[in-house]
Amino acid sequence: MTTDFENSLEYARRLDQADPLCHFRKQFIFPQHEGKDTLYFCGNSLGLQPVAVRQALIAELDQWAEFGVEGHFRGDKPWMYYHKFLAESSARLVGASPEEVVVMNTLTTNLHLMMVSFYRPSKTRYKILMEAGAFPSDQYAMETQAIWHGFNPDDAVIEIEPRPGEDCLRTEDIIQVIHQHGEQVAIVMFSGVNYYTGQFFDIPAITRAAHAVGAFAGFDLAHTAGNLPLQLHDWQVDFAVWCSYKYLNSGPGGPSGVFVHQKHGNAPEIPRFGGWWGHDESERFLMKKGFKPMPGAPGWQLSNAQIFSCAAHLASLKIFDQAGMEALRKKSMQLTAFLEFILTSAGSHGHEFQIITPAEPSARGCQLSILTGSSGKDLFEYLNQNGVIADWREPNVIRLAPVPLYNSFEDVWQLGKLIEAYNNRH
Ligand SMILES: *Cc1c(COP(=O)(O)O)cnc(C)c1O
Questions:
Q1: In sequence order, which ranges of 347-408 are alpha helices (DSSP H)?
Q2: pTM beyond cutoff 0.70
């Protein structure tokens, strides 16, 4: 991988010409600004619409129109089996077997469903370890889980903080805290990539440490799925959840993915909340008493699938199958390194501008988070007025995610040019 970059439009265009994935950009719809594509760096928040989604939705409307209720069993994608159509691509994305994954509900709902099965505290083993500064929904979920089981969250939820003066966590410190709480730890619940700093945690090392003290290891992969290659099965992760509308481009409120490791998936005795869609498929419509979960992650389903959002997700997953996570990661590392280079050259005019995302490529995905000074909001608004879609996180962080499926090296260069223009004016 080259990191010996040049700051010029010709150079950025040369990188685009050499990019084997550059044609995927045409499969996405860019919001417009003054008649041109916006510089869209917000795929960490809501991925762009794949062109194919519209047709995929129309196909399900047609199925409904043509067959009515019989659409559950007829046509080339009968709704009854819809979760199966999503399983193989989802499994590839996270490094699992198709039985270990299921697409259902939304992320926070699934996080609670997983906690039902994997957070079964006792008087002595009841602590939840998580990173400080986790996404608020995860914080609320852990807090209310502790309360639900009769614990005081101030005691039961342990947040692991970075060292003073540091923005990111060191793996050795995470492992040390896990060992420090030892047999009191019921579960270690981390994100894969922290939404704020962009730090990619060492999932295998955290999982090993959790298991060493007899705890489960669960991960929220909202910012990780579709961003970094994963090997959840081999890493022995107990469970994971993710959403499909960020890097997976499946549209607002899109469905969530769940991973349950095979060693748990095939244990019907694991407590869980049941519903008819998780019940043994051959008997689902017999309406008999006695819940018998399907094997694997599908045995955690409650309801029948939300076909329209699953159809959008399926169309989007096909693009990941075509591109492949390894190739995406390869481009992503170069694209993010180029953004880092461009920001560093553009930011050297005296404005406060610090990248808090780890510099080490193995400890980050595509996102870079920039801690700005007092004029940060002003810069952010200037960029926005000039056709850049990025996002702002209080108190003063700009998050930029160059997404390898649809962002180009030229996008990054154009962003740098705008930042330089801003710096020169102020
Ligand atoms: C985006 C995100 C969520 C969103 O949760 P929903 O239930 O899909 O609304 C939750 N957790 C993390 C870490 C996220 O990044």
A1: 376-385
A2: yes
